[in-house]
Amino acid sequence: MRQEHATPSEWLPFLSGGGQMGAMMRAHDWSASPLGHPRDWSQALRTTVGLMLNSKFPMFVAWGPELGFLYNDSYALILGEKHPCALGAPMQGVWSEIWEVLHPLIVRALKGEATYVDRLLLRMNRHGYDEDTWFRFSYSPVRDEDGTVAGMFCACVEMTAEVQAERYRDEENQRLMTLFEQAPGIIAVLRGPNHVFEIANESYLQLIGRRELIGKPVREALPEVAGQGFFELLDQVYRSGQPFVGHAVPVRVQRDASGLMEERFVDFVYQPIRDAKGAVAGIFVEGSDVTERKRVEDELRAANRQKDQFLAMLAHELRNPLAPITTAAQLLQRGSLDPERARHASAIIARQSEHMTVLVNDLLDVSRVTRGLVSIDREDLDLNSVVHGAIEQVRPLMDARRQELQVELMEPPLYVSGDRTRLVQVLSNILNNAAKYTPAGGRLGLRITAEEDEAVIAVRDNGQGIDPQMLPYIFDLFTQAERTPDRSQGGLGIGLALVASLVALHGGRVSAHSAGLGQGSEFVIRLPLLGAVRAAKALGKPPAAAAASGPVRVLVVDDNADAAQMLATLLEAHGHAVSVAYDGSSGYACALRERPDVMLLDIGLPDMDGHELARRLRASSVTAGATLVALTGYGQSEDRERAREAGFDRHLVKPADLSALLAILAQARQPG
């Protein structure tokens, strides 16, 4: 027996076919639907449903006062879990969550006005959860046989996947743009044969200065770059399709609209961009501003050249005194010289050895000063006395070159707080420099003046002068003016660097002036003056008492037998009694036996070092009162501190200054 709700397709041709939804409509129980049984549907509704069911495009029809809902297979996918319950149900119940958005459009359609929307956002709940969806659709009125609008027809396309893909692409593009903007390197994209700016990141703008670039051809945007080869390179890359790579290429840009042209250095790549057909459509510019790196590299190269020049000068300056020393020593070794020639050979050895000592001391001084290891022993000093001490050191050189020195001192004298030895060293370096670079028979001048709270010492000469290009670097380490072919000036290029550092330690400053080559030069030292009260006290300070002189018992301990014997001979020539030992154990035994007044101890002894020997001697009551002098090749501040901790009274660097050594012996003289 046939069921009442079955609707064979042969009875209702408009429901024939129609895929799954056609079958469902034929088998559906329409008794609860506001649409009633399909056999009772109007011809207009039948026609619309028949058209809809046989379309592959998502469609639905909402008919009658309650907008009964009918749809095809393609639309069933849009409904999700609302299918199949939505079939024949009122539309408001089907799409209750978006009814407020749809209702105004439905009203317009039912009034006979077709509507169309594109990418309308609808927050649907069709899979058990709320989700954002986007649709393109139109609502069209459907008229019944009498011409009245009885329902509406909708054809739609879900755009959710497309919108989400576009949003993802937009987000990716934004992320890329953010990466471009934040990239430390310069990035720009140029389009077309005129190289129009499409993208330029923050680093690019920092390089060329902030200006409007986007949409402008490169020649218009960067007019000051014309003639520097960059535009031509862009043209070449665009024509050839071959990338170009540049390293540390200079570019002059006007970073400030009202400023001067500025030179920068860039590493960069011009990479062609190709379209879908393989043709060049633009150029990708990527690179970095390497100006600071280039500056550092240039400075390192310059420093390396200075180092090489310095080593060459050092070799030359050390070989110069070694040659006469070696020759004089060989002559003395023959033993066939008459007394006058022997004295002459000895004088050569002494003079050239002193010259080598000065070179080595200068090297040690500049090393200690540049590393901040030098401290100064301040006292209140008469500048006139300091000047006399410096002139005394340089006088032999000036006399040998027959140079005239004019000195203008202050009376009463000016007083400063400083280290006498170091200030004499500063002035003697300046005077020595002036004498070296002034020809024989030239004139030098030294003048002391006071300007406000500063003492001013100016040393001038009429020598070869200073190239203006070298003036800014004259106090840099290892900087030296051009030498004459005979290299007669000599020196290591460290004297003025040492001067500047020592003057700075005294709270002063030094400057150099010259009108140019052949125009002479002037060096000006400025030092803080003492206050009037302290200067007056210094002026009335009594002279130090002269040290007593006389024979002293001396022990020399050194594993270098030649050095020990020569030092002993020299001290004996000055009237002192000297014993010699060649290792720590022998020196300790000799000290206990002979009780010397002064012990000159080498540090690098073979059995026990000089520090250990000093500690043992200090622990012995027999030698506890003796003066211990460390005589060593190590002269750094930490070496002096180690010697003091071991019990040494004084620290002398080899070769020891004879006057300093004799002064120590004079101070240590024991009565009787």
CATH topology of the largest domain: Heat Shock Protein 90
What would the principal axes of the Cα set say about the shape? elongated
> What gyration radius follows from the Cα positions, in whole Å?
51 Å
Number of domains: 5
Residue-averaged pLDDT: 85
Top-tier CATH class of the largest domain? Alpha Beta
Tell me about the biggest sheet? Answer: 5 strands, antiparallel
**The CATH H-level homologous superfamily of the largest domain:** Histidine kinase-like ATPase, C-terminal domain
Helical element count? 20
Q: State the CATH architecture of the largest domain.
A: 2-Layer Sandwich
In helices, the fraction of residues equals: 40-55%
Structural class by secondary-structure content = alpha+beta
Total number of beta strands: 22
Query: Which stretches are low in confidence, meaning pLDDT under 50 for 5 or more residues running?
Result: 1-10, 482-490, 541-548
Structure overview:
This protein is of the alpha+beta class. It has five domains: 13-164, PAS domain (Beta-Lactamase, 2-Layer Sandwich), CATH 3.30.450; 183-289, 2-Layer Sandwich (Beta-Lactamase), CATH 3.30.450; 299-370, Signal transduction histidine kinase, dimerisation/phosphotransfer (DHp) domain (Helix Hairpins, Orthogonal Bundle); 379-539, Heat Shock Protein 90 (2-Layer Sandwich), CATH 3.30.565.10; 553-667, Response regulator (Rossmann fold), CATH 3.40.50. It is 40% helix and 23% strand. The protein is built from 20 helices and 22 strands. The strands form five sheets. It has a five-stranded antiparallel β-sheet, with helices on both faces. Strand 16 and strand 17 form a beta hairpin. The longest helix is centred in the middle third of the chain and has 44 residues, at 291-334. The radius of gyration is 51 Å and the shape is elongated.
